[in-house]
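We modelled the chain as a single entity of 402 amino acids. Its sequence is:
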Amino acid sequence: MSFPRRATRQISVGDVAVGGGAPVSVQSMTTTKTADVERTLAQIYALAAAGADIVRCTCNEEPAAEGLAQIVPRSPVPIIADIHFQYRLALAAMEAGVQGLRLNPGNIRKPEHVKAVASEARDRGLPIRVGVNAGSLDPDIAERHGGATPEALVDSALRELDYFAEVDFADVKISVKSSDVPTMIAAYRLLADRVDHPLHLGVTEAGPLPGGLVKSTAGIGTLLAEGIGDTIRYSLTADPVEEAKAGRLLLEALGLRERRGLDLIACPSCGRAEVDVIKVASEAQEALAARELPLQVAVMGCVVNGPGEARGADLGIAAGRGRGHLFVRGQVVRVVPEDEMVDALVEEAERIVAEGVEARLAAADEEAAAAAAADRDELLEVQGADVNEAEVHISRIRELAD
């Protein structure tokens, strides 16, 4: 299943297409001083390795612009210059070779300055993100709307577009961010109905983990599921590598980007569990994540429900009677001692990547399915079909309701 995408025009940030049916891209921002070229480049490479397609760097002073001139040629991904207040720094950043700009309408307010930057971007063929932010909204717009409402955020973006139109510049993407998730969602919905420009999604100032992850995912995920959004950023009070990881994982979870790393699923455990699911899942996560295998792997606490519930996974293991039942796409292929479960998962995962799923199913141990069935039957006999006593509670609920 895939989510329908809102139709937009397409722009290019360096070699990364945004909008117009292109894959949703992940962005993040460096936290180093841009003038510190080597540290900034090290962070850019870490962000790219974690899943960032585009990286933004602040350009808040002349040394930062000079740093960009050295960073851009060595960067593995396109670089966007983040501009606040000083429009001349936008001109300097373009001279440094950046592949795009981010302008905040709330702090570059003079129309002639906005149009000067847009004219230069037009001549250079560079895109600009109109980065509206509830925390820096132009006072006259905020007063007219009674604060940083969704309507106010959208009006700010539209006014910037009018300035751009005066100099025949339309190579634009837009964000209307707020730290309040419902406001952010409402603003993007309004904007999506008004323009066909690609949209950059984010919950600004989302905060530290885990709250920042929850707020960002709630806002960004809701809109992506509605087909709104062409590029995203998690704005976390954390190492920016965590932003890139989270963004990439969200897109993979929604089926908007191909899985390139591990997706480990695990049952929450119950009265039927035969192992410490949390411990086994953590060990498997650590062992498999380091290998960056593009697989969905399941760790299940029991053999009664495990293989069936996780039959959609590429690979999984379920515990029963001191043994681990290793299954591929729901079919048990091997039975291993319980203390070898994680090692068996890693070995089978590497074989699946090297040989393919069909080859591993063909190589299944012929006795594995029978052994698994015997363990399942034994557990059912010992524990019963209702190990969590749900039927007892249901019966009592019905008695109380009568």
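As a brief sanity check on the tokenised model: Residues 80 and 100 are 5 Å apart (CA to CA). The first strand starts at residue 11 and ends at 13.
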